[in-house]
# Entry
Amino acid sequence: MSASPDTLNRATGLHLPGFARLSCLIAQPVLTRVVQRIAKRHPSMFARLGSHRTTDFLIDPVELPFALHLRPDPQALVLRAVPRHAAPRAGATIRGKFLLLLELIDSEEDGDAAFFSRDLEVTGDTEAVVRLRNALDDVDGSIAEETAEMFGPAGRAILARLRRAYPT
Amino acid sequence: MSLAELICPAGTPAALRTAVDAGADAVYCGFQDATNARNFPGLNFTPDELASSVAYAHEQGTKVLLALNTYPPAGKFDLWRQAADTGARLGVDAFIVADMGVADYIARIHPGIRLHLSVQAAASSPEAIRYYCENFGVKRVVLPRILTIPEIRQIRKEIPCEIETFIFGNHGLMIEGRCSLTNYLTGQSTNMDGVCSPASDVEYKRHEDGSMSSQLAGFTIDCFRSDEKAGYPTICKGRYRTAHRDDAYYAFEEPISLNLSRLLPELIDAGVHAFKIEGRQRSKSYVRGVVSAFRQAVDDIRAGRQANIADLVALTEGQKQTQGAFETKKWR
Ligand code: SF4
# Structure
């Protein structure tokens, strides 16, 4: 069953706007580097997005203090951390636990199965989500590991700890 | 003799490589247009992608089957003709067809390439299957999912071609290739446009109480409580309210997938030549999990060992599985 972001965030205090904004500021430089690197290494994935290259996606990891705004336009790529209360109007929203979202990006988990089990929630433009899913699924290798590699041993250690922290 | 070939889905080049690496004997795939029955946004192959994918598969000894299994509407046959010509030029090993015009074109213009009769042709009697064999040289029929194993065994004796059956995945309820439910609500045809419940017409709504409703073209198909498993937004698996019932109910079938892992030895014994795994629209994770599980099972059976198939229920629709009509006609 999917966790409610409100319950989780209220319990942890992560809903406080100040904390969310601060987290976004810390995360942003990392996100910018990550998305630029991925776009450079996997240019063919944009073709599968079709006209949804300019759709605004909100990726909402329920237990993090912020959500991610993605506009996968190769001309003007956007991936930024946004506090939930200040999130832009999204064409499509994808919501689930952070590690699940990471595993879906890497095709370690099956999106349809996560949807059937209700661990993944999708709202808004379904075609946009299907295109994004198919674009990411055609990427070979692990985007999570590529990202971790960018930050050397520290990055790899964080990814390993993250995977251990979540029961699969 | 049954070889129990494993025929595996490939929605993208990366999924194709995953299926090949997981032990597929053959992969099936389609172009990015209405010529195949999984014409989903962002899915499928460009001709260039198919060329490199055929090379990859052939290097590993895996065959590539090209699905041209939709029905060309009047005046639009050129798209299917071009797809067949491109597939032939790129060296695919077989075409999977449903329409007689497409079958006839390939039989005349590309006689060296095998023709498989798609499940979309809904050929379930020896008479119908023999007609395709005699007139178009069809080498294999993919049987509709409405036959019991004794019926398959009997058909095998009366037809001159190989039999392929689905063993895992989506489980449609209507006569294959004839279902017009999507067309009725969306104006798009499953059988001519290649898509059931097109994503552009699907919407999921989350409600305050944690429930989620799925809608197709504005019609509610189902509403899942927060503690219920979900299914695809297909009309045949929808839950509806009617005047004569107090609660909403599954009028045709509930969200469920086919899983014949326990029937593999009987199917082989009945003369089934190839096993098909549904799911070109699914992820590499699904392809990896399902193909390796069935690879192991088929290898065990061939070696005379008891097949110990991995639990695949987590990958099934609604997290429920059935042996459908293969076990008994009374399944629904
Ligand atoms: S509505 Fe059901 S039976 Fe009809 S095409 Fe779609 S999945 Fe198949």
The interface with chain A takes residues 11-15, 17, 40-43, 46, 198-200, 202-206, 210, 212, 224, 226-232, 255, 281-286, 289, 314-319 of chain B (CB under 8 Å). The radius of gyration of chain B is 20 Å. Chain B is about 30% helix and 20% strand.
